Amino acid sequence: MNLDLVRKSVIENANEVGAFIRQEQQNFDKAKTEQKDGFNNLVSYVDKKAEKLIVNALKKILPGSGILGEEGANIKSQNEYEWIIDPLDGTTNFIHGIPLFAVSIGLSRSGKLVLGVVLEVNSRECFHAIENENAFCNESEIQVSPTKLLSESLLATGFPYNHFTKREDYLNIIKHFLDHSHGIRRLGSAAVDLAYVACGRLEGFFEYNLNPWDVAAGAFIVQQAGGFVTDFDGGDNFLFGDQICAAGHCHAEMLQSIQSFWNKS
What we know:
Blueprint: H1 3-25, E1 34-35, E2 42-43, H2 45-61, E3 66-69, E4 74-75, E5 81-89, H3 91-95, E6 102-109, E7 112-120, E8 125-130, E9 135-137, E10 140-142, E11 154-157, H4 167-180, E12 183-185, H5 190-198, E13 204-208, H6 212-224, E14 228-230, E15 243-247, H7 251-262
């Protein structure tokens, strides 16, 4: 299979879905918002329609492949490939008119990520990568930040909609980073956070209580851009383990800081 041709088709589909999302945002009615499976976990008809558009396209791009989507798409694979998709990552931003949200499409082969596409819908920046190649933003090659010190790093994080039992540990991590970095941003889209790590705008990103579709594409792009992605234990279970620490060359210091607080309880 030619992954480069697959990537081109996926980027084309992501741009089509992005155009649909931009169009719907112009006259979006907040009353059409629904609560999903937890407090403040929001979904709209735009998320659902966008996922249908993506699923229909992916079925044609790689027939027989599995699909795991945030809005309910769950198709068992008939081959070694599985798509992991978030049709609108940053739904809360979208609903409130904050122009930062993304289409995220990842592909795994036998459990290993081999392709990632993240389209930031409003800027129309498309971050993408395939295995054994460099990462790109649109047509330009990207790399993670060369910054090695946490004290010179700008970080991003997110806050869980539920699963609050580790909240105090997490807040202690945030306090530590506030005291030992250039600051922390909360952009509202894990896919965009990871894309920004990949292109060096952020030095690192960390969060817990995430799902595979939140991180699959972005994490792979970070890796292909020369970055490091682990769970909070330093292992590689960031896709299904609900924790992620993704960074450039400050990853080791970030991870050490996280572990000093996370493992105490």
